[in-house]
Design a protein that fits this description.
28 helices; 865 residues; alpha/beta; five-stranded parallel β-sheet
Amino acid sequence: MAYAALISLKHTINRLLYSSAISIVSPGLGMIRSAYRELRFLEGVVKRLDSRSSIGRENGGDDEEDVERRIREAVFKLEDALEFYASDQFESRGDEGCPLMLSLDSEAVHLEMESFTEMVKIVKNYSEEFVSHEEDEYAAAASEVVKSEMVGLADELRRIRSSLTTWMTDQLCVASLEGMAGVGKTTLAKEAFDDPFVCQYFDIRVWISVGEKYQLKRIILSILAQIDLCIDRDVREGDEELIECLNESLKGRRYLIVLDDVWDLEIRDFVNKVLPEESNGSRVLLTTRLHEVSRSLSYVTSIHRVRFLNKEESWSLLRHKVFGDEWCPPPLERVGRRIAAICEGLPLAVVMVADILSRGEKTVKYWNEVAERKNSVFTDAYGEMYELLYPSYKQLPHHLKVYFLYMGVFPENHHILISKLFQLWVAEGFISISQAKINQILTVEWLEELVSRSIIIIPQRGSSYKFKTCKLHSAFWHLCVRESEKAKFLHIINTYSHGFTEGIEDQRRLCIHNGILFGIKEVHDSMASASASRSLLCTGPPHPYPVPVCFELRLLRVLDALAIRFYEFPIEALRLVHLRYLALTCNGDLPASISLLRSICFLIVRRHLSLKSPGEPPYLPEEIWDMQELVHLQIMGGNLPNPNGAVLENLLTLSDVSSQSCTKEVLEGVPRLRKLGIQIELEPDADAADPFSCFDHISHLYSLNSLKCVVVNPELSYEIPTPSPLPSFPKRLKKLSLSGCGYPWECLREIALMPNLEVLKLRCYAFQGPEWEVRRGEFLKLKFLLLEDSDLVRWRAEDPCFPCLDRVILRHCYGLEEVPWRRLTSVQEVELVDCYPSALKQMPDYQMQLGNVGVHSSWEELPRS
């Protein structure tokens, strides 16, 4: 897509202009500054093109597609020429300390700059002829909704019916049904609309299908038509006369108006200003995919987020659509339940799959092929859903389209770590963000926007972050991949044939979902031909054996090869001077020449757990302190050397380093560190240094707000040891995670008095002993508490304590008998996994009735009196 190409080139030019390793000299300096100015103009053109196409796909003519294509191709070619030139200069110069002087006097650069300038002239001529006119087309406003028998969601229907008929006020109120496309909003609304009690309760009932294009006149005319009112032709032409006529016709009558499939915020003017306020219990029920629509209404609004079907409801719907009132043979039911579960609770997906099944063979063999994804049933079903899902993508603003398409780099149904996704977007250049802004990010606005538009799913919430992981429903994943391939935004390689797709040499991002394909020479060579690729992402399942990764792609910014195993650090990677994100799994040491990767912001190296070098953890090279762009450094078990006065000013995260790294000199070299993760390995030698001495200098990290410490080989015994006292943690620390430390519970008092602590995670006997007593005034700001794998039996607390505690998670605390639930009055969400039954029995009824108590056990369901 043209927008992503423009953002990428802007980022490349900024790096060339402001990199400490490069100095642009004349005439190149003036040339790229001129190109940068033109990029702003082109961004405006692309946004105008997109706004026209979002009105309706039929309005986007061939001319507009040609303009977008011209922009994308010219921008890509100029960026390729600039980065190839810079790479060649770096390689020819070798490793020198002074900045690289670039004049951009390359024939290829000049040629592509001329082509770029010519493209800008063409676009400017086209822009002058831009006539922004829209066809006056309306969505079918008074369409008849086909009656569909609802299966499942009975609880949702009861809530909606109650909102319409038993609200505590007679004032005009709005009930809004929000949710993903295909989740059943319209079906629920129609069920409520046709409910016998609702029909009797309201004097007038009107159904309006609004659609993507909101038109006030059409809505009013449709209402008047449905209440059998004849309108003079003269009146039909004036909005004011129509509004007056509508008010007269509704006056004194209790009405229900359903506005189905609302997209435009202007609907608030219809509800807030046009409809009469009779104070007689009139209601508006609207359905929408956008939370912003519901939030924009000034009248009292009841917002119902329509949930997905559970597994039993999914199977009931599938069975009903395939067999009707007929009997389903038990062998088909067993596999049918598996098929229904694959639909992930989306009713439309269940219906589409059921429709295909009803036309196919009703045999166990065929249905097993469907459940094992050995045929095209699910792909065909998602294809049939495309037209309904596409508006959710089409209506996205430019930046959200880029973020949405990028989620296609991960396999179907993959739970994506938000932190990793954000790092990749920064490395790609989609988010142009200063270090100061990175410092302050606690929640991610773009993600909340996608959630509010009912496009992505949040399967797991974090502690301090609102979201921890996200995913696409499989139907949206197929839409994402389809649009990504169409825009040449990314190319997925999962099978042998995918490696030979036409145009693979022009792809900017290669996403490898099957690592073994690197080992097939023909596929490897085909991938290596994509010389302009900026990203190589191996996001499939881990591949346990080394395969030859495509290090020939010299312009890579992102290389995510965590799923590929290397025995040693691949020296070939050091030629990729444009890398900003490098993630590898290898057991070898980092070479001193790692500092050649001057642009690296995110460096992640994991160890293959089946191999462990004896003796001391490997020291990282001293040259690591020369990598001034580093923001995130994660080296499993690595040992940072003495910096000798060097400082990494931009480093915000240091993860999985050995405890020996936490010396005074090292920590002084990372003054802005916000997140620190330490691995402690206990030594069998009794005379060895205290392993917890790594805490001695942490108090000097004044910006630190997250600390994680894991003892990788904890020594647990019935006799509770007396370790060295806990350190004085930094005052700003908000998040603390400890595992395997073996402290007695009494030592937790130091932590309990920390003034800003909001998140506490205690795993694997971080503290041990049968009893933990919390005193008055402790944990005053704690919001999240996790206890996992503990021998705790009695947890007691004085009142008041934990005044802000919102979430409690207890996992694998098999002996826990007593929990002070009555003291935890602020708790809103509880999760218990494999805990002693009495831990739940003591919970007061009012906390159980919150509806946010999750109980999971490996044995039978826990009884509760």
